[in-house]
Design brief:
Helix content: over 70%
Number of strands: 0
Low-confidence stretches: none
Largest sheet: none
Order of helices and strands: HHH
Radius of gyration: 24 Å
Length: 88
């Protein structure tokens, strides 16, 4: 009959081995993912600002298009980032 300490050590080793098997990404991969997510948020917003400024200059509409396309770019960036984070 196994002693309680032996049983606890065995369970601890099994939990540790399972955690190592199920680990999905390393720290380096997590940092790379953070960088990708950052660019995924920034690029659509910058494209929206650039396109909005061009449209505002062309039509003389103040900041109407700039703000609208900035918001659209941020929303698009958030959707793309969400999809990237939920990717297996």
């Amino acid at each position: 009959m196994p002693r309680p300490l032996d049983e606890e050590v065995r369970r601890h080793r099994e939990r540790r081995a399972r955690a190592q098997r199920e680990s999905r990404r390393s720290i380096g991969q997590d940092l790379a993912l953070a960088g990708v997510i950052g660019w995924t948020l920034v690029i659509p917003a910058l494209i929206g600002v650039y396109a909005g400024r061009a449209l505002d200059r062309r039509f003389g509409s103040g900041v109407f298009w700039t703000l609208g396309l900035l918001v659209a770019g941020i929303v698009l960036g958030c959707v793309l980032a969400w999809q990237r984070l939920n990717k297996p």
